[in-house]
Design goal:
The protein is mostly helical and 212 residues long. The chain is built from nine helices and no strands. Helix 3 packs antiparallel against helix 4 and helix 7 runs antiparallel to helix 8. It is elongated and about 55 Å long. The N terminus is likely disordered.
């Protein structure tokens, strides 16, 4: 009988202790295991979003290949708004811009490229978008805007950026600035770079002929 009473008293004490301390106890468990569980949950969520974005990008490619512009633009817009944290948003915008250029829709292309430059999270994709945006602006006969977008630094894309800078300066009629840019581009080009031969040809074309 005493044992039964003791058990009931212990149970009541346990209930009382639990009521008084359950918040702290659960909090301690969250602190102890929450980081691990939270990180695993985040990875599952992140990987799931990346997989969805990947599937959307594949659907985008099909629509672009099939000239389904409206459907393609809808996918790009959703990737930009809901999946901007994944690289697929920037890649999709680049693909849409390329398609727009082929169709002569330079304003649309420029808008897609501007988004990548401003919102892209991958440095390489941002630099690619910056170069393409400058080319689109040059095609629109906006050389000063193209130079402004190009900026002064292009990281690992410096050779391509300087070559484009030369093209822009040449379009403006500044042969001296164009030659300087081509020389920098040639100096920055890696051995075996595909643009070295063309760069040399551009420089040769700008060689000043000594008066006789």
């Amino acid at each position: 009988m005493a044992t039964h009473i003791d058990d009931e008293e212990d149970l009541e004490r346990l209930k009382t202790w639990w009521k008084e301390n359950w918040v702290a106890l659960v909090g301690g468990l969250v602190i102890g295991f929450g980081a691990i569980g939270g990180w695993e949950a985040y990875k599952v969520w992140r990987d799931g979003r990346a997989e969805t974005a990947s599937q959307m990008y594949e659907e985008l490619r099909k629509n672009l290949d099939g000239a389904k512009t409206d459907e393609a633009n809808a996918i790009v817009d959703r990737l930009k708004s809901d999946y901007a944290s994944t690289p697929y948003a920037a890649i999709a915008a680049l693909a849409a811009a390329q398609s727009a250029v082929k169709n002569g829709q330079y304003d649309t292309a420029a808008a897609h490229l501007k988004w990548v430059v401003e919102k892209g999270r991958d440095e390489g994709l941002v630099e690619v978008a910056r170069l393409r945006q400058a080319r689109v602006l040059l095609a629109q006969n906006k050389p000063d805007d193209a130079l402004a977008v190009l900026g002064k630094e292009a990281g690992s894309f410096s050779s391509l950026a300087e070559e484009l800078r030369g093209d822009i300066q040449l379009a403006k009629g500044d042969r001296k600035a164009a030659r300087s840019a081509y020389e920098k581009a040639l100096a920055a080009a890696e051995s075996g770079a595909t643009n070295k031969t063309l760069l040399q040809q551009k420089l040769d074309d700008l060689t000043e002929v000594n008066p006789s």
